[in-house]
Amino acid sequence: MFKNLTVDKLVKINAYVGSITAYGIVFSKLSVIYSILFLFLFFVGLYRDFYRPFNISRLVLNILGIGFVLMMILQINPENIVQPAIDTITALLGLKLLEEKKFRDYMQIFLMITLILSGYTLLSISMLFLLYLVFYTFFLNYGIILLSFYG
């Protein structure tokens, strides 16, 4: 069962588990359109990485990312800064999962997961955050150890 597990696959699994966990944490706070967008990008990235590899131009992904950031800028108002930022970071995380990933891309995925977790604390102050923080600390350490063997 575990014969085909390589460091590359473990790093990918770690990135996807962390991403879906971050999404699960902020799911109730996300706008519906961004929630659907993330899930679509997540599953397309999962299909791309594990089942049938195909390439998507980084230029196209970068233009989409800039579009998401511009949409966030249009949504920000003095009373609501965090919500559009969390929506946008979640969409950018989904885009990052579509790219062909190298070491720096995995580090960016970990950073976006950290930003989503940090944004969640601004939207909902709860003791549940401590549980998320402990889980994320182990997840991040595991990911960095795997990345040291990656590539």
TrEMBL record:
Pfam families linked: TgpA_N
InterPro entries in alphabetical order: TgpA_N
Signal peptide annotation: none
Organism domain of life: Bacteria
Protein-glutamine gamma-glutamyltransferase TgpA N-terminal domain residues: 20-148
Keyword field: Membrane, Transmembrane, Transmembrane helix
Transmembrane segments: 20-47, 59-75, 105-123, 129-150
Name of the protein in its database record: DUF3488 domain-containing protein
